[in-house]
Amino acid sequence: MHIAVLVKQVPNPESLAAVLRIDEAVCKIVLPPGHPMVMSPFDEQALEAALRIRDQSAAQMRISAVTLGPESARAALKQALALGADDAVHVLDAAFDSADSYLTAHALAAALRRLGTVDLVLAGRQAADWDAGVVALGVAEILDLPSVAFACAVQASSESVRVERVLPDGYETFELAMPALVTVSNELGEVRKPNLRETMRAARKPVASWNAAELGLDARELRARRKLARLYLPQKRAQCEWIEAETAAARGALLAQRLHAERLIPKP
Amino acid sequence: MSADILIVPEFGQDASSPVVCELITLARRLAQSAHGRVGVLVLGAAAPEPDAWAGSGVDCIYFARSSGLPLPEMLVAAATEAARRAASAIVLLPHTTAGAELAPRLAFRLDGAVASGCVDVSVEADSVRCTRPCYGGLAREVDEFALAPVVATVRAGIFERAPAHAGRRPELIDLGSFEATRARRIDRRTEAAAGARLEDAAVIVAGGRGLGGAEGFDLLAKLARELGGAVGASRVPCDLGWCPHSWQIGLTGKTVTPELYVAVGISGAGHHMAGCGNAKTIVAINSDPEAAIFQDARFGVVGDYREVVPALIAQLRSLNDASSRKS
Ligand SMILES: Cc1cc2nc3c(=O)[nH]c(=O)nc-3n(C[C@H](O)[C@H](O)[C@H](O)COP(=O)(O)OP(=O)(O)OC[C@H]3O[C@@H](n4cnc5c(N)ncnc54)[C@H](O)[C@@H]3O)c2cc1C
Ligand SMILES: Nc1ncnc2c1ncn2[C@@H]1O[C@H](COP(=O)(O)O)[C@@H](O)[C@H]1O
């Protein structure tokens, strides 16, 4: 079985709040020098889902990590290899410098076609930069693959894949004919850490680099559809009334009085 | 140029569903700028009664036949058909599991554009503008797309519910039936919410990592009962198994818009605030006065929740008793 995992490199979202600035004139985010770039967290979970499938299967298994991004995105592929992926593809071309979801999906779909017989494509539910959740499902549509989004568990047999997901009011399970595409959500749970042995081996694993021409993309597919008209940081409300009293318990009681006085507790 | 607006609700939602009413408000506004009609896609075993949608603000109903709960594949096919019948449509869906899953495939099939989790959509001349949170809810982007087709999923609780439009009885357009061949649903379990659903609750008490364990949620449940509300959570307690995943509020959890939101032991990350930032009043209880949540809160209490919350409950109880004695 051949599984392809789509991984994107993003600015570390966990430490972004304090440092994120925006240059509104050019609609670009500005990060302090050295802000760490990481594999998008949901993509780590997609890779984890692939590794779990391999752990549970006796079948021959190949896991390819695929990214589209600048030269530096190679680090995300290296991380995937160190975690246990067998090989990697870097979709790299200046034509992708300001790629939107549309262009990215077409380029990744072309890369998957070139990769050959992929049985299962796994991706994150959304990349932690634009938080769109579009690219992977776009790839599924372009390649005409059945898909399920927001998986919390993925099991694959030779012909089909079983996908469980969390709903607002429960759970549901699907079975898809392969080849198929599944996007993975955080409910999948903890991901493994790279171990020393795999990290050593990773250095020798193959990383292919494909450009737009090699992927046979035509000019139409290479045109972005989104124009970023504005990018900004929203205003905070910043109007906090501090509840002040000697002890924490007294502050709790005072809060009740304030909420009551301001009639902020809706009648059931 | 003109464009029709097509609303694709969740399966089973009708003209009385709050989310649908909000989408109708937005759709009517867009239809006015785009000089188009407002349609709604309805799936079901039997055709809907157009009278049930009379006065809702909808001009036509696209009906797709499906037995039982539709599969994602059928939804895409039916929505594509409806969007093609409409004149170069702007398609609006609620930003829910089903909506967020459907929108990208629909957009690519229609050879159009898509924006997910929008907080505003507008039509200007020959373009559609979508405003949405990005970078974990820290930033906002305004995307501009050529007029249509454009597919947008829209967050709940932003638009007013549409007022009644006197007497308009929508036209019914039958799209035929749709099937799924490559996917089946093999199980679906629903858990009934103990009290009000988070999406509908007027009061929400939400707990975070600061609760320190599952027991903290017992205390929050008491507070919620006193306030007549529901209990929610940040992502951390859900991931740690202190509470069900369905309680998660935020960018990748539920979007909620209660009158009163009490955040207990929650730091106020952009990811979390993206799901609750539109609550009317936010109250924060946190032991760290520097926590970001206080920048969004109307009332702030600094302290250990284990001391603050029991006193809050006790005082609320005595105030409630006093006011019920008065009335
Ligand atoms: C791609 C992505 C998507 C995400 N999506 C979501 C999402 O949808 N929803 C979400 O919530 N998060 C989401 N997150 C996680 C988010 O970034 C934060 O990590 C998370 O919201 C933090 O949860 P928290 O506030 O409960 O925990 P923390 O940030 O650890 O905050 C705990 C708070 O509790 C306070 N505290 C500690 N002890 C006490 C006490 N005894 N009494 C009172 N206060 C106390 C502390 O001062 C602190 O402020 C996402 C993250 C990523 C990367
Ligand atoms: N540039 C990229 N390279 C590889 N995978 C990507 C890229 N962009 C998006 N994806 C995949 O598609 C998912 C959804 O991305 P997005 O639509 O950008 O939120 C991500 O979690 C990745 O799995």
In short:
The complex is a heterodimer of chains A (268) and B (327). Chain A is α/β, with parallel strands linked by helices.
Describe the 3D structure.
The complex is a heterodimer of chains A (268) and B (327). Chain A has two domains: 2-222, HUPs (Rossmann fold, 3-Layer(aba) Sandwich), CATH 3.40.50; 238-268. In chain A, strands 11-10-9-12-8-1-6-7-13 form a nine-stranded mixed sheet, sandwiched between helices. A two-stranded antiparallel sheet of chain A has the order 2-5. A two-stranded antiparallel ribbon of chain A has the order 3-4. Chain A is 26% helix and 29% strand. In chain A, 47% of the residues are buried. By secondary structure, chain A is an alpha/beta fold. In chain A, helix 2 crosses helix 5. Chain A has helices at 41-55, 74-83, 101-115, 135-142, 196-202, 248-261; strands at residues 2-6, 9-11, 21-23, 28-30, 37-39, 62-68, 87-91, 120-124, 147-156, 160-167, 170-177, 180-184, 207-210, 227-232, 241-242. The model of chain A has no long low-confidence stretch (mean pLDDT 95). Chain B starts with a strand and ends with a helix. Chain B has helices at 18-34, 72-85, 97-109, 215-227, 235-239, 270-276, 305-326; strands at residues 5-7, 38-44, 60-65, 90-94, 113-118, 120-124, 127-134, 139-146, 150-154, 171-177, 183-190, 203-207, 230-233, 260-264, 281-286, 299-302. Chain B folds into two domains: 4-177, Rossmann fold (3-Layer(aba) Sandwich), CATH 3.40.50; 203-326, 3-Layer(aba) Sandwich (Rossmann fold). In chain B, strands 5-9-4-1-2-3-10 form a seven-stranded parallel sheet, with helices on both faces. Chain B contains seven helices and 16 strands. With 327 residues, chain B is an alpha/beta fold. The model of chain B has no long low-confidence stretch (mean pLDDT 93). The chains are: A alpha/beta (268), B alpha/beta (327). At the A-B interface, helix 3, helix 4, strand 9, strand 10 and strand 11 of A face helix 3, strand 5, strand 7, strand 8 and strand 11 of B. Strand 11 of chain A pairs antiparallel with strand 11 of chain B. The complex binds flavin-adenine dinucleotide and adenosine monophosphate.
